[in-house]
């Protein structure tokens, strides 16, 4: 053997970590692994960490006491009245964020304006909403067109009713004025 200082091996790097609470192995506590293995002089303990079932149990208990987030009766927050068809169909294009112009639907069931869908297809072969490949298939959204036509009729019908009500009020006011004018002239 040689005497004197020896050169350290180049392929091994030793790191040292100093902890001022030397009763528990810090590496094992943080990562679940200790480089010293069984020869480590510190305690390998992760007992203060909760297991998955303990976390879930605490969550369920917290939800039972919290009426605001899930501790309520089942179905309490369901919307029961109104058309469920309106909820299924979007009211605006996902790309341009405006009302639909010539709406089309992709194979994955997302609705876009025809122009927006084609522009997006030139940039990417995937659906703008979910990222699935569209393969260039954009079909006319007939159900959405029907809903838009129904909505347009409904809006026009409400406008006509409002105009009729306003007209009747004005006519009634005129007749009342004309009756009072006749009384004042006598």
UniProtKB/TrEMBL annotation:
Q: GO MF annotations for this entry?
A: DNA binding; zinc ion binding
> Where in or outside the cell?
Nucleus
Record-given protein name? Pre-mRNA-splicing factor CWC24
Domain RanBP2-type per the UniProt entry, residue ranges: 107-136
State the SUPFAM superfamilies in the record: CCCH zinc finger (SSF90229), RING/U-box (SSF57850)
The record's PANTHER family line, in alphabetical order, gives: RING FINGER PROTEIN 113B, ZINC FINGER PROTEIN 183
Q: Subunit notes for this chain?
A: Associated with the spliceosome.
GO BP terms in the entry: mRNA processing; snoRNA splicing
Q: Where are the zinc fingers (C3H1-type)?
A: 19-47
Has keyword DNA-binding?
A: yes
> According to the lineage, what is the superkingdom?
Eukaryota
Q: Which residues form the RING-type domain?
A: 93-130
List the GO cellular component terms. U2-type spliceosomal complex
* InterPro entries, sorted: CWC24-like, Znf-RING_euk, Znf_CCCH, Znf_CCCH_sf, Znf_RanBP2, Znf_RING, Znf_RING/FYVE/PHD, Znf_RING_CS
Q: What does this protein do?
A: Involved in pre-mRNA splicing.
- Keyword check for Nucleus, yes or no: yes
| Principal location listed in the UniProt entry | nucleus
